[in-house]
Amino acid sequence: MKISDFAELENKITNDANFSTIGHLHGKGEKRLVPINSEQDFQYAVLSETIAGFIIPMTILLPIDTEKGLLISPNPLKTALFIQKEIYQKSGESKKPTKIHPSASIHPTAIISENDVSIGKKVQIYEHVIIHEGSIIEDNSIIGPNTLIGSIPQSDDSDQSLKEYHLFGSVHIKQDVVIHANCCIEKPWFQDTTIIGKRCHIDNLVTIRQGAVVNDCSLITANSEIGEYVTIGKNCWIGLRATIHPGVNIGDSCYVTLGSRVTKNIGPGMVVKDNWTIKRERFKGIIT
After folding, report:
1. What digits encode the pLDDT tens for the residues 175-204?
2. Which GO terms describe its cellular component (predicted)?
3. What is the pTM of this model?
4. φ, ψ for residue 221 (rounded to 5)?
5. Greater confidence, 280 or 38?
6. Structurally, what CATH architecture does the domain formed by 3-91 represent?
7. How many CB atoms lie within 10 A of CB 112?
């Protein structure tokens, strides 16, 4: 596809380019066209080898020379969602009815979308849970009261006009996961997946933003926020009220202390305190 294939858009194409998909700044898709809203994000995106082009507002200074596509738009996210909708309609794909295994226990106050939801064996869904389209919950998982699965990304929900667009991402909660009360697991705008790995434990009042991946056997404690497209390795412990910034990668067997704000990638086996990292083995007797 080329940006010019969507010439009916009332936007300015500064530089045409081929792209394969619409995606997020921190997404993993190759040759993606990405909406950008800030100069800081744009400077980060220009260096990415997997981004084919940008949709940017007029307020961002254009680069002097770039081979990547450039589309100027007053609302980059809305334009990206419009293009994605056009691609979806041309694909001929359709929604599938929700499937709930007979052994699953669903509280009568829970709200589950009629389409594109899959709930496995012996899953327990408690009161006032809301499960949106594009959600997969595998066997033996537990979803606590008042939790939202597959909600619209909260950072964007102030723009009411965005709610007319379909979210094309998904949420995949694997086997034996426990998610406690009042949590929010976001679904990506684009064709990515928010993943909670096997035997993970998500405590009360945790927010996991769109596109994040929490790998197997990790614990996210109460009041923590996992940013957009964060990757957390296996066997990690994320402390109370911790914040992991968007796009950060945390290696296996890491320990993030309570209240920490993690803004950079962390290698495996590290202790993180206020964005400082220390080899976990040095403190093994204290934290295990």
Report:
1. 999 999 999 999 999 989 999 999 999 999
2. membrane
3. 0.89
4. -85, 175
5. 38
6. 3-Layer(aba) Sandwich (3.40)
7. 18
